[in-house]
Design a protein that fits this description.
Elements (H helix, E strand, L loop, with lengths): L3 H8 L4 H22 L1 H4 L5 E3 L4 H8 L3 H8 L15 E3 L26 E3 L4 E3 L6 H5 L7 H28 L1 H20 L4 H29 L2 H28 L3 H9 L8 H4 L4 H6 L3 H14 L32 H31 L3 H10 L1 H11 L6 H20 L5 H28 L3 H32 L3 H19 L3
């Protein structure tokens, strides 16, 4: 009896049906981008200072410029390493008193400003921005800055829990059902997050988005690789991730046009409701149906594929057998991922690579948001370098294999991170060039681990294997915000040094993996 791959050779391994399905599923990859890296815009932290009652009236009375107002009324930065810089403190001065002069209002209170008492920002903050973010709306600065770290960590906690739970459900009850459920919950929680009146509710709905969004993205990835022939599986897997890069470019443009976080969140969420129409557009995976001994249903899907591809299905091919050894075990178990020495080695190596790739990829994007001069252009330009990364993988993976391009991409990313630390600030063009090389390297590493992960497991545990291994990238994502934002407060380039050390360790694990 023929396998699915034998039948695909006759009805088309990547014809109209597969191309149409790929396009539809790639839109899910595009829509996943704002959830994964949207913190750069949703949690943008502009320059800020304490709101001091009476300062605005005094500034207007004296005719100060903004620079003069800041010079006269805002404390300078504190000592290096101090946890609360000048933007988190205010002079304990009654700015409404009439004795204050316009020339130097603090001169009459103390000979040296450093002797004036400082206090916390009791009346809130003033933010130098025309838009808004969750930082400006909920005042996630100074003593509350950790709440921004928690916001991004929450979505990664959701990624982790969702990957473990929904991955198992998708292998037990089908890809299509889980895909539609995740789409609905993701869209609803995204809208609720956009209208949430408090930080707590915003955090809860962000967590719910995390529970389903990444799982939905990965289920789409699994679906498209199971619809195509073996020789196209790698290519569609890579271009599915290229769709994510298109999402980065779109996100930068939408964020520029909608600088207010609630409108931005709403705009990037609403298209998800359109994906519910996939109920009528995308069938269940025939490979999964066969793995569950549902051969009749699988054959109906295959006949539908043949009709779409305008191919006839010979009578000799209208009976099926599993293409992989799935008949012995139809119900996947977490133990299957470590049952044999070879599978166990694959699982451990893949989990470590997912972890380090996530920390570096998300970390570089967050660091760029803190260090960049124009957040929209920097985000856009850094996203562009992900396209060459995908094409390099396509050109090298069949000629060289997976191991050496995978290790080389880690080398490039690590060296670029370390080199950026020593480049002087006045050589901005060189700093940008090296940063782009690092981004390209980590993108290659990230896409390689996703591609290899899907190839190393048989059908009945493939979805579970991808989601469980990739859950380690969620652990990395939970740590990354605290790592980047806290280390940056000590030294702007310190996160890059840490990233380089992670990549040094990862290269050894990569070279031990299967070619």
């Amino acid at each position: 009896m023929p396998t699915v791959d034998d039948i695909l050779e006759h009805i088309g391994e990547f014809n109209f049906f597969q191309k149409q399905t790929f396009f539809l599923l790639a839109l899910i990859s595009v829509a996943f981008t704002p959830i994964y890296v949207g913190i750069v815009f949703l949690g943008f932290t502009p320059d800020h200072r304490c709101l001091s009652p009476g300062v605005a009236e005094l500034s207007q009375r004296c005719g100060w410029s903004l620079a003069e107002e800041l010079n006269y009324t805002v404390p300078g930065p504190g000592p290096v390493g101090e946890p609360f810089p000048g933007q988190c403190r205010r002079y304990e001065v009654d700015w409404n008193q009439s004795a204050l002069s316009c020339e130097d209002p603090l001169a009459g209170l103390a000979a040296n400003r450093s002797h004036l008492p400082l206090g916390p920002c009791r009346h809130g903050w003033v933010y130098d921005t025309l838009g808004s973010s969750i930082v400006t709306e909920f005042n996630l600065v100074c003593a509350n800055s950790w709440m921004l770290d928690l916001f991004q960590s929450a979505v990664n906690v959701g990624f982790f829990i969702g990957s473990m739970g929904i991955g198992y459900i998708a292998d037990r009850f089908g890809r299509k059902l889980c895909l539609l459920i995740t789409i609905l919950i993701n869209a609803a929680s995204g809208v609720l997050m956009a209208i949430s009146p408090t930080y707590t509710l915003t955090l809860i709905f962000r967590l719910i988005q995390g529970l389903v969004s990444k799982a939905g993205w990965l289920i789409g990835y699994i679906l498209i690789t199971e619809f195509v022939g073996l020789q196209y599986r790698r290519t569609v897997g890579i271009f599915y991730q290229v769709a994510f890069t298109f999402g980065l470019l779109i996100l930068a443009g939408v964020a520029y046009l909608l600088p207010h976080w609630r409108w931005l969140q709403l705009m990037v969420t609403l298209p998800n409701f359109c994906f519910l129409f996939y109920y009528w557009c995308i069938p269940e995976s025939p490979r999964w149906l066969i793995s569950q001994n549902k051969n009749a249903e699988a054959m109906r899907v295959i006949k539908h594929m043949a009709k779409k591809n305008r191919k006839s299905l010979p009578a000799s091919l209208q009976s099926l057998r599993p293409g992989e050894e799935v008949s012995e075990k139809l119900n996947p178990s977490f133990l299957d991922l470590v049952r044999t020495p070879q599978i166990r080695k694959h699982t451990l190596v893949l989990m470590y690579n997912w972890f380090t790739s996530s920390v570096l990829y998300q970390g570089l994007i967050m660091h760029m948001g803190l260090a960049g001069s124009n957040i929209y252009l920097d985000f856009f330009y850094s996203a562009l370098v992900e396209f060459p990364a995908a094409f390099i993988i396509i050109l090298t993976i069949d000629r060289i294999g997976r191991r050496y391009p995978w290790a080389a991409s880690n080398v490039v990313a690590g060296v670029a991170c370390l080199a950026s630390v020593f480049i002087p600030a006045d050589l901005q063009w060189l700093k940008v060039t090296v940063a782009c090389l690092g981004r390209m390297g980590i993108t290659m590493a990230y896409e390689m681990v996703c591609l290899v992960n899907a190839e190393l497991y048989p059908t009945f545990i493939r979805n579970l294997g991808v989601l469980v291994c990739s859950s380690m990238c969620d652990i990395g994502g939970i740590i990354t915000p605290f790592l980047v934002y806290r280390l940056t407060s000590i030294w702007q380039e310190l996160p890059l040094v840490v990233f380089d050390q992670e990549k040094r360790k990862k290269r050894g694990f990569t070279l031990k993996s299967r070619n």
